[in-house]
Write a structure and sequence with these properties.
2 domains, three-stranded antiparallel beta sheet, elongated
Length: 257
């Protein structure tokens, strides 16, 4: 026997779908993945939806199966970052909603749990990113002294960016500060000829700032037909690259290389 859908749930469904969509977009999910996940959740709850997804806002229209009840909701998304733990958790949740007939309340509780999942401690992130920078330096021919310089430069640069973001600086200015600090440290080593390949340390000290996820999402969005979002993400990537370049350029001017 087919279960009748309670149309009065539509406003609540719209709100939870917007919360899920905003969490996905702000955590590094592509437009296509966000759309598929929200449609899967809506189907699991017995509703149909129409979506408008932009870089900074989501709009969803929820329609019941009899098309007698329609609700539209709009939500602004927060600045985008990367949190693959949340993205994968929401994806698993959407399949469970579809297969296990979850209720709206269960989705709300699971989303709250996913948002509260702890991040890696700051010092572990700084250390591992610094080691990654040192590994890149080695790949480009740097020796142990060059790797040590790159580790310190990357560590300090990322620390600067995290601190600037906490102080609510403009994201692009934060990236500029990080690039400048990392370049100044690596540039000091090159200025005083520390290491066998100080140029390798200098060139790899800012690689941690390269916006890999936005670049990938820009390409996948455009390939999936989401041209507007893809172009916005592409321009965002270019501005980030410009901020990195300006930090390196400023350091070069200071050292008169």
């Amino acid at each position: 026997m087919e279960t009748k859908i309670d149309s009065t749930l539509a406003p609540r469904v719209g709100n939870v779908l917007l919360d899920v969509g905003a969490a996905l977009m702000s955590s590094g999910a592509s437009t296509h993945r966000t759309r598929l996940t929200l449609e899967r959740l809506a189907n699991g709850l017995g509703f149909k939806i129409e979506l408008l997804i932009t870089q900074r806002a989501l709009m969803v229209t929820v329609i019941d199966e009899e098309k007698q009840h329609l609700v539209s909701r709009l939500k602004r998304t927060s600045p985008h970052g990367v949190n693959f733990k949340l993205v994968s958790g929401v994806s698993r949740m959407s399949w469970r909603v579809l297969e296990e007939n979850w209720t709206v309340e269960q989705i709300e509780n699971e989303l709250r749990r996913l948002k509260k999942l702890p991040h890696y401690p700051r010092w572990i992130v700084l250390t591992m990113v610094g080691l990654a920078g040192a590994a890149f330096c080695r790949i480009f021919g740097g020796g142990l002294p060059d790797m040590a310089v790159t580790f310190v430069a990357t560590f300090a640069g990322l620390y600067t960016r995290q601190t600037a973001v906490k102080k609510k600086f403009n994201p692009y200015i934060s990236i500029y500060f990080a690039s400048l600090v990392a370049s100044l440290i690596a540039g000091t080593a090159e200025f005083f000829a520390i290491g066998s390949h100080p140029d390798a340390a200098f060139s790899t000290s800012v690689l941690f700032l390269v916006p890999g996820v936005p670049m990938i999402n820009a390409v996948t969005d455009m390939m999936d037909g989401n041209t507007q979002n893809g172009l916005v993400r592409l321009f965002n990537t270019l501005i980030i690259a410009f901020a990195i370049a300006m930090g390196v350029f400023t350091a070069r001017v200071i050292f008169n290389f």
